[in-house]
Design a protein that fits this description.
about 0% strand, mainly alpha
């Protein structure tokens, strides 16, 4: 899967959850762009479903922004 496919998938999920997503905010902390813990959990479930992956629970707290989430998705898809 190409990085652009991942970006497009995250754009769709973000739009459904009514949260900000653009390529200028990839490195901003989730809290800074308005993603609270409840929304974050919902988004992770959406990501797992959309990309057919399971993000290990012990890795969830290390994902602080979209850039880290993209890296995690890329790692788990391979």
């Amino acid at each position: 899967m190409k990085k652009q496919d991942i970006l497009n998938g995250l754009k769709e999920i973000s739009k459904e959850r009514n949260v900000k997503f653009d390529e200028n905010s990839l490195n901003k902390p989730f809290k800074e762009i308005g993603i609270d813990s409840l929304t974050g959990i919902s988004m992770i479930m959406d990501v797992e479903s959309k990309f057919g992956i399971t993000i290990p629970d012990d890795k969830l707290t290390s994902i602080k922004n979209y850039a880290e989430l993209i890296k995690m998705i890329e790692t788990l898809i391979k």
